[in-house]
Design goal:
Distance between the termini: 30 Å
Number of helices: 10
CATH architecture of the largest domain: Alpha-Beta Complex
Low-confidence stretches: none
Mean pLDDT: 96
Shape: globular
Number of domains: 2
CATH superfamily of the largest domain: 2-enoyl-CoA Hydratase, Chain A, domain 1
Structural class: alpha/beta
Strand content: 15-25%
Number of strands: 9
Largest sheet: 6 strands, mixed
């Protein structure tokens, strides 16, 4: 794994933690951070020892959205330059969304503008009650375009309209109500809750979780219901015959733990 300028990658056993690391400006992102996030999520797919990926922010905030200095430069770009950088941003969110490992965003302080794309692209998103969220793009005359597929998947069409058209600021509990995050908790309870989710994930077959993510991706984004009839039957037939599937079923029938569960 290479050294990065705007993020850090930390490994704790089978947990890979991606830290947004520009705390002096509340982890606001620029073209460098976007490229580095894209790279780290592509790299982690190849790391067999990593089973879960967590996305967090150093300092007082998860992410304050786009870096103002970067935005000043972008304001003077041509259409072609804007498209190139925006496409890279879209690819960053897509890389997170399609990561082969379960992904978990842990949000604190603030998640403004494009930060909501980072958390919405993750499989799970958790926050403390005091975090401020806002899809504020309309307030400066633009739209939350690149993040919209992922935010809309989470909160639905009409929830997206409410959050995106008003640009209003909400706190953690209301973000949970909108389903922008899975759960909002008091700060002192958040880490304990994260550990409980990680513990559950560690009892699931690593390859089965990847297959499950692929299954959900296909039925939500690619397959018609008619196509899913045969496609899903093929998937379960293949996985039952796989080494992990055979081990899991043998462990269940033998009333023992499968070999991917410690202890």
């Amino acid at each position: 794994m290479q050294n990065y300028k705007t993020i850090e990658f930390e490994v704790k056993n089978d947990l890979g933690i991606v830290w947004l690391n520009r705390p002096e400006i509340h982890n606001a992102f620029n073209e460098v951070m976007i490229s580095e996030l894209l790279d780290v999520f592509q790299q982690v797919n190849k790391m067999d020892d990593i089973r879960i990926v967590m996305l967090r922010g150093r300092g007082k905030s998860f992410c304050a959205g786009a870096d103002l200095n970067w935005m000043r430069g972008v304001a003077g770009y041509s259409y072609e330059q804007n498209f190139k950088e925006s496409l890279n941003l879209s690819r960053c969110f897509y890389a997170i969304y399609t990561c082969a490992k379960p992904t978990m965003a842990v949000v604190h302080g603030a998640a403004i503008g494009g930060a909501n794309g980072l958390l919405a692209a993750c499989d799970f998103a958790y926050t403390d009650d005091n975090t401020t969220f806002s899809l504020s793009e309309v307030k400066i005359g633009i739209v939350p375009a690149c993040i919209s597929p992922y935010v809309t998947k989470r909160v639905g069409e009409y929830g997206s309209k409410e959050l995106m058209l008003t640009g209003k600021r909400i706190q953690g509990p209301e973000a949970e109500k909108h389903r922008l995050v899975n759960k909002s908790l008091p700060t002192e309870l958040l880490e304990e809750y994260l550990e409980s989710v990680i513990k559950l994930l560690r009892t699931s077959g690593p390859k089965a979780m990847t297959h499950c993510k692929n299954l959900i991706f296909d039925i939500c984004n690619k397959l018609t219901l008619d196509e899913a009839v045969e496609d899903t039957a093929k998937m379960i037939a293949e996985i039952r015959a796989s080494d992990e599937g055979q081990e899991g079923m043998a462990a269940f029938l033998g009333k023992r733990k499968p070999n991917w569960v410690e202890g």
